[in-house]
Amino acid sequence: MYSIKVDPVTIPEICKVSLGRHSITMITALLMKILSVALLIILGSQVTVAQSDCDCSKTLEQLVFKVEHEYPGFGAYTKDSLAYLSFKKQRMDLSRSTNESNCFDILNGYTKYFKRSHLSIVQQKINSEDFGTKAVDTINIDRENFQNHVKHTTDVFEGIWTSGSYKVGVVKKDQDYVAFIISAQNKSWKEKEIKFKFDKDGSAIYFMGDHSQVSDTCRLIKNSILYFCKNKITLTKTFPQPPLSGNDLTDEINELQGFSLKPLSSQTLLLRIPSFGYENRERIEDLIKAKKPMLDSYENLIIDVRGNSGGTDYSFRPILPYLYTNPVRHLSGDYLVTFTLIKSLTDWVNDPANTKESDLENVKQDIKRMEGNIGKFIPYNTGERFGYIKQDSVLLFPKNVVILADGESGSSTENFIMNAKQSKKVKILGTPTYGCIDYLSVIEFELNCDKYILYMPTVRLERAEGFPIDNIGIQPDIYMDKFVKDWILYAKDYLENKMSACITKPTLKEEVLTLKKEWGFKFPLPSKNDTINLLFIEMEKSYFTFESKNMDSVASKILSIDSTFYMALSFQAFKKWPFDLEKLRKAKKYSLNDTSIQRLIFGGDYSYWIEHDTVGALKQYTEVYNRYPDSKIAAWLAGMASLWSKDYSRALFYYNRSLEIDPTFYHAYYDIGDTYKESNQYEKSIENFKIFLTHYPSKYRIHTVIGDLYLALKDPVNAKKHYLIADSLKNVYSGTN
Fold it and tell me: Are 234 and 264 contained in the same domain?
């Protein structure tokens, strides 16, 4: 199980209040990405469920009742009533014949009927054992002695560092560094408890807010910032005084976390905003203020919000004056009044952390309007159903603006784009956005079973009926097709009227050479036909990045051109386990007339899988590596043959060599994990399998392997945790393993 913090509250442009942070627990890393888009507007505080009746059919009945009576989008998604009733009956029948372990799949399947609609159900942790191993280590250190020591130290790592409400001391112990808590608002952390450790090479162990342990890599930046790359955690040094401070320090941190405003040329600026999260609102406002002289003098502005899954509309408001050319029209919306909504708003009003009087008064008035209207839609605002956002003046610069958006630009980012599209000087370049802004303001709804939490929106936007965005997305003004390799360059040239470099389609040979360079393909091209060469490199890349459907499709295209192209037959044979040995024998037959390096590359597989000749396979793959020592695939093949020969140290050498050549060749982490498993080094095996899963979460069956390894280490708690993860992810990634 994973404990994940969702982006704080998102409020649409028509909303009046900004509400606080919210944490929920989810079962998969993938859900983190889905819910950062789908659960962007969360009101109130988490509800503790008192009931514990987990009969699946009863839970589904309650879920259906709540959706049918309390979800504002229910009518829009069930216009085909016969289809919905048939689907519901099928789910009900399943729920009566299933066991508790499969119930979540049935409940989740029901909510998926409503697609991208801010409606979802998640499992929560209910047993303490679900939390896995916790950090409880402390350090025996005297604060006064530590203070005196770091005052005179020449070690740039030692000192006092801060991140949010955490203040830690870093001290060197033997050859490693240990960070201990000095103070923290998180009550689960006590003074002198160890927050993280790292060595001189940057390998780190970090303990999260719930004390769960994660591996990471730590970088020291300009002797002022500690940056944990994987979890994107930043600490700044406060004592002794670091070299960076003020705007220089802020700029460096912003750059690390993807927030920046920089010139691309004498005419064009690039503004990157990776998130409109509530926690970033001040960061964005400060960035815009600090760079105001630039914004006031450059003719063109590119705003890159690709991958920005949303947050709160308050975060993008500082940008709007630079887009404005005319009054921006907006529509209001309607609350669907429920007891849960009233309770959430009441809890928010009673939260001492919320002190802004105007916000509090507005929410109190909303609660009063809701009384006596349970189950009814009431206007979100008491005034007009539409309105205009007006500015006193139109800024002279920038004169032209391009916004780059893609399929991961969602929720409040889509509100930003909808607002910007009304400006006469803005163009949207990219692909259709995520499509998730018709129903907003998500809150928790209680179910009878305390294992599940239901999230549903409470507001229906006026626009939704006539101009829906959910599951469609906002269409760009200019579509970025797959031949546009550099969107920023394209946008820059578009703005500066230098389009020729962008719109000239590359030749087939240029496409082959580009893909060859991108993938790091070091071998000679296998064919005189560049169409086959292009497809072959794409096929190989798809194989090693676990895109099996695409690999199979590309292989079929190659075989439609040349039915004897044995390399495509070989890849198809390896599509799934157990391998198709009949197809592999056919490929071997076609390969006999080939004298190129490719015959040697695939010959090792034929030797091992068809002839069970490990010696022959090792000889062939070692020769391939010796001839192409800078090829990650050659190194990987040599590692695989070494593993077949049970030469584990040599296998590890070759697999690590493939990562040296290309650090993004994440496939190798699986093979390293497999090698450590075969050599009974279970802890190292687990470590590498976990790294592999961070890049390929769809390979959920690896969690079962990790569970088996924990059992071998006599750790049933962590074993159970990974078995549960594998089971819960089965529905999410069905058909991908």
Answer: no
